Amino acid sequence: MKQPHILLVEDETHIAQGLIFNLEMEGFLITHAETGAAAMEAFHRQSYDLVVLDLMLPDSHGIDLCRQMRKESSQLPILMLTALGEEQDRIKGLKEGADDYLTKPFNLDEFLLRVHGILRRSAWYQPTFNKEEIYLFNNNRIDLRNLEAVTTHGNICLTELEGRMLRTLFANEGETLTRAELLKSVWGMSADTETRTLDNFIVRLRKYFEADPAKPKHFLTVRGRGYRFIREPEQG
Fold it and tell me: Which residue blocks in 76-221 are alpha helix, DSSP H?
């Protein structure tokens, strides 16, 4: 079995050393970069199975790196590390393509669970929703096999997690999926996990596929419960 290769971008030496030690103990191959420039050089030098990306770096901002990496590799999983007070940065990072985030200081066991979960989902990503590999709605054409979409807002390369979210919603068209169900099926998180990741993914899907993201007709919020996908909303 191929040894998963992780690019760790973290400038705080004591944090980086601890993460490298524990990740290597888990059987991962680690490349460490302390600056944005070093991270992009390593990123272009070889391929990775996961990027663990700190937001605050001495020469650049992690969001800019996330945007650039996502532009060049649409399906590469990215786990973002943020400081406690960077709520807007976390939201922006998710909008720019990060798949998940952890807030510093974080529990090591939770970090390792997130890493294993992201890599497991990436390895699992096989077509499971075979009813329609090409999904059409609201002038959108979504190729679930190749993770590509043609929308009224332009062409989009979807991430693996975006594809997994869409598959789950499409396969349960018209049904309300609770936050717990979506967190479990898409991210592999426990039902009681407190995270804004899910909400920001819905915002991202609305931006991609809704005619008016502020007034969604397809990706609906069911207050107090979760979300529902409607392919053909009622007129009126």
Answer: 87-95, 108-124, 160-171, 179-182, 197-209
